[in-house]
Write a structure and sequence with these properties.
Length: 150
């Protein structure tokens, strides 16, 4: 990797990690702003989306899908249960393990979250080819995931 020190100052807006970070920041801020208007806290919308797509998952499965660590998942699940957005149910074959399900209120909120996500995505996709952007971002994700050692 060969570059000149005076060129480093102008590189940030051309480096993919920095651009992805900035895109995430503004997308997350907009999502948080819009979903807080419907009574949700950060982290909750993606859990609702995840369960709306496939209800009845373990906290570990949800955490892996939503890229949340165990302690964050525990506190979010407790808060969402208090808000009556989700409920826990013991698995039949393993009483130590629970599955998380959406309540009717949780399903309603999940539908609102899906609508908000669509709005934010449409803002992000303005003047872009959505299919091409998705292909590029999925390829970037695959490339990085291959190198990441969990």
């Amino acid at each position: 990797f060969d570059f000149k020190l005076n060129e480093v100052k102008n590189m940030l807006n051309h480096e993919i990690h920095f651009l992805l970070l900035k895109c995430f920041h503004y997308s997350h801020k907009l999502m948080t702003q819009k979903t807080s208007n419907i009574g949700l806290y950060p982290g909750q919308p993606k859990i609702l989306e995840c369960l709306y797509e496939k209800d009845g998952q373990t906290p570990k499965e949800i955490g892996q899908t939503c890229v949340l660590d165990k302690s964050t998942m525990t506190s979010l699940i407790q808060k969402m249960e208090t808000q009556q957005l989700i409920y826990r149910q013991n698995q039949l074959n393993d009483k130590r393990s629970v599955l998380i399900f959406l309540t009717e209120l949780g399903k309603e909120k999940a539908i609102e979250v899906k609508r908000i996500c669509y709005e934010v995505d449409q803002i992000a996709y303005q003047s872009l080819n959505q299919k091409e952007v998705n292909q590029i971002l999925n390829q970037v994700l695959d490339n990085l995931r291959e190198e990441y050692d969990e």
